[in-house]
Write a structure and sequence with these properties.
This protein is of the alpha+beta class. 34% of the residues lie in helices and 25% in strands. It is globular, with a radius of gyration of 12 Å.
Length: 77
């Protein structure tokens, strides 16, 4: 499963989200692709006020901040 991690430059909350991702312990195999929302006007308008956001590519589900590693584990199920 691929997770898109929408982030931005100098985003302190994104740093915290990255720390929570590192704590995830699950049997579900997943990869994380970081995407800087500043590279696209469309992404900036969609996520600019919401980052960090995790999005599942398989079903389009999104998990917006604030979240913990436990929240991420449930999101992956």
């Amino acid at each position: 499963m691929n997770i898109v991690f929408y982030t931005g430059p100098q985003c302190g909350l994104c740093d915290y989200a990255d720390e929570e991702l590192a704590k995830v312990s699950t049997d579900v195999a997943f990869t994380v692709s970081k995407v800087n929302i500043r590279t696209s006007t469309e992404l900036y308008h969609l996520y600019g006020a919401r980052i960090p956001v995790l999005k599942r590519e398989d079903n389009g589900g999104e998990l917006g901040w604030p979240f913990t590693h436990q929240d991420i584990e449930e999101f992956l199920l």
